[in-house]
Amino acid sequence: MENTNQAKKKAFLTGITGQDGSYLTDFLLAKNYEVHGLVRHSSVFNRQRLEHIYQATRRSAQSFLEYGTDIEQKSNLILHYGDLSDGSSLARLIAKIQPDEIYNLGAQSHVQISFDIPEYTGEITGLGTVRLLEAIRETKIKTKFYQASSSEMFGNAEETPQKETTAFRPRSPYGCAKVYAYHTAVNYREAYGLFICNGILFNHESPRRGENFVTRKIAKGVAEIVAGKRDHIYLGNLEAKRDWGYAPEYVEAMWLMMQQEQGDDYVIATGETHSVGEFTEEIFSLAGIDNWEKYIKKNPIYYRPTEINALIGDATKAKNKLGWEPKIRFKELARIMLDAELKKLGIIVIRN
Ligand code: NAP
Ligand code: G4F
User: Fold this and answer.
1) pTM score, two decimals?
2) CATH 1.10.3080.10 holds for 214-241+273-310+328-344
3) Could you read off the pLDDT of 224-276 as tens digits, one per residue?
4) Rounded Cα gap, residues 92 and 86, in angstroms
5) Distance in Å, CA 37 to ligand 1 centroid
6) Which of ligand 1's atoms lies nearest the C-alpha of 85?
7) What is the rounded distance in angstroms from the CA atom of residue 72 to the CA atom of residue 122?
8) How does pLDDT run across 284-320, given as a tens digit for each residue?
9) Which residues are known catalytic residues?
10) Which of 117, 186, 259, 341 is the most buried (most CB within 10 A)?
11) Cβ-Cβ contacts under 8 Å for 236 (sequence gap 6 or more)
12) Ligand 2 neighbourhood includes 240 CB (under 6 angstroms)
């Protein structure tokens, strides 16, 4: 049980509107944090993943839709406009909020798209981290910093499974930008004595995953086939293997890293790997459809100029030092994702 007499901790999240940002917000609010989030302006509404929180606290729909900030400060979730490309807004917000913990989850996070917009990816995913760290250094506030590092940094990995000491051999502009951000974070820890953690997270998925990442795309596509709304799913490389975990469990690992005495770097993974084809087969099988291959059409546009053939993580350090272990495994993750998509289409799922 939480001690409600203690002063409320304040967290500042970039990427709060994303998959991980929204789960981390749920997690921190349940721990009685005051959560501040950076949102960027967009011409379409980009706060769907946080809407359940606003509905639960019955805040003014007007301020949420128009400005998104809790003008009357009645809830523990406060959104602020800003952008990882805009260092002055980051410094101003950090000085104003004085957060105890900063989680840098914001990024151009799509690997294939990073080949189309490499410069922008470097700007946000790489330099965005430097801007935040400089803001901390200049404002001199005492805070802890979490950097969302990625298994994509291992690229064509030289050893299997990958752990904290495995060399980085990135295979995409996104991977290169994350390697830059990782090393910058380590350098600021060593140079300025800041509390900084790199969470090197392997792929983690959920019903809140972006629709253009492969697991969500497949789960949504199969649910639509079940509903008679489409006949095929267009995919790229089915041979690539990934270590897929469940996002809500991974945000807990982020928080655990930030509660340690010292900042450090940790791999977070399930230690299991499966191909995109195996994931597709599993989802079709859960939907009761045989001959899954006849529903898949290969489209070359989904192939990447360079691909990572296989990733699998070794999270022994996280288990020993944080007491963190994944509970949701491949088959259950697939079920959670398919059932969420079926539910959205009004299809009732009864499983034994
Ligand atoms: P996501 O769903 O794609 O969310 C990315 C977030 O970054 C969104 O809130 C997005 O805002 C925000 N963002 C993008 N550009 C920005 C900018 N210029 N300024 C400020 N914010 C910006 O990603 P995720 O899956 O939650 O992942 C969270 C972090 O972990 C990312 O850094 C990702 O690279 C990293 N990571 C993810 C995985 C994974 O498997 N999910 C694994 C390892 C590492 P909008 O909502 O406005 O687009
Ligand atoms: O779902 P994906 O796009 O994820 P990817 O590239 O592994 O990146 C994700 O995980 C990283 C951690 O390792 C994060 F850092 C990153 O931010 C992101 O969250 O693709 C997974 C695999 C790839 O091998 C891809 O080539 O699926 C293959 N794939 C096959 N067909 C496809 C498709 N990927 C997508 N997105 N769309 C397809 O149609």
Assistant:
1) 0.96
2) no
3) 999 999 999 999 999 999 999 999 999 999 999 999 999 999 999 999 999 99
4) 10
5) 13
6) 18
7) 37
8) 999 999 999 999 999 999 999 999 999 999 999 999 9
9) 150, 152, 174
10) 341
11) 298, 299, 300, 301, 302, 303, 304
12) yes
- Protein residues whose CB sits closer than 6 Å to any atom of ligand 1: 14-15, 17-21, 38, 40, 42, 46, 83-85, 105-109, 124, 148, 150, 201, 203-204, 210
Q: What integer pLDDT is reported at residue 64 of this predicted model?
A: 57
Q: How far is the CA of 342 from the centre of ligand 1 (A)?
A: 25
Q: In this predicted structure, what is the pLDDT of residue 270?
A: 98
pLDDT, tens digit (0-9, with 9 covering 90-100), for 166-210: 999 999 999 999 999 999 999 999 999 999 999 999 999 999 999
pLDDT tens for residues 123-155?
999 999 999 999 999 999 999 999 999 999 999
Quick one: tokens of 68? 């998104």
Of the options 3.30.70.100, 3.40.50.720, 3.40.50.450, 3.90.1570.10, the CATH number for the domain spanning 10-206+246-268: 3.40.50.720
Measured from the alpha carbon of residue 148, the closest ligand is 1
Nearest ligand 2 atom to the CA of 109 is 17
Q: What is the dihedral of CA 232, 233, 235, 239, to 10 degrees?
A: -90
Residue ranges, CATH 3.90.25.10, the chain: 214-241+273-310+328-344
Distance CA 257, CA 201 (A): 12
Question: 36: annotated binding-site residue?
Answer: no
Q: Which atom of ligand 2 is nearest to the CA of 216?
A: 1
